[in-house]
């Protein structure tokens, strides 16, 4: 089945490597790329900067903006790569309503590894103290999501290996992945 556009949502908790993988996929595929963090209203950024976890009422308008962006890109015939925590299945259901095919690439790994990565980051508003709340909120991909083509990927593997795995598993056109 051909889709007018494909949206690869690189998801997972903070520090799982979403930005690294999304940037590499965008380069390989030549697709538009966006960071979900760019869609957060200032009030959400302030909450997270102060160590306050976001609640659903904080996230719904943010997720709607992301879905709107994906649909706008699809209307222009563009496939996309997007980073978004997409921690709950209900969030992913909303994002899946964007025009085009929406697939989730769940980057998962050990909490210790993710915590180490967060400690080494500079200039990000998400403090490592919020990792436990993200892990508690995370709902892994369902069997139905996996059956629809979404992937679960182990972050202990090198980013280059993960990108190759994604491109092969999703059978993305070789001419786009050159």
Automatic annotation (TrEMBL):
<dbReference type="GO" id="GO:0019521">
    <property type="term" value="P:D-gluconate metabolic process"/>
</dbReference>
<comment type="similarity">
    <text>Belongs to the gluconokinase GntK/GntV family.</text>
</comment>
<dbReference type="GO" id="GO:0005524">
    <property type="term" value="F:ATP binding"/>
</dbReference>
<dbReference type="GO" id="GO:0005737">
    <property type="term" value="C:cytoplasm"/>
</dbReference>
<keyword id="KW-0067">ATP-binding</keyword>
<dbReference type="InterPro" id="IPR027417">
    <property type="entry name" value="P-loop_NTPase"/>
</dbReference>
<dbReference type="Pfam" id="PF13671">
    <property type="entry name" value="AAA_33"/>
</dbReference>
<keyword id="KW-0808">Transferase</keyword>
<comment type="pathway">
    <text>Carbohydrate acid metabolism.</text>
</comment>
<keyword id="KW-0418">Kinase</keyword>
<dbReference type="GO" id="GO:0046316">
    <property type="term" value="F:gluconokinase activity"/>
</dbReference>
<keyword id="KW-0311">Gluconate utilization</keyword>
<keyword id="KW-0547">Nucleotide-binding</keyword>
<protein>
    <recommendedName>
        <fullName>Gluconokinase</fullName>
        <ecNumber>2.7.1.12</ecNumber>
    </recommendedName>
</protein>
<dbReference type="InterPro" id="IPR006001">
    <property type="entry name" value="Therm_gnt_kin"/>
</dbReference>
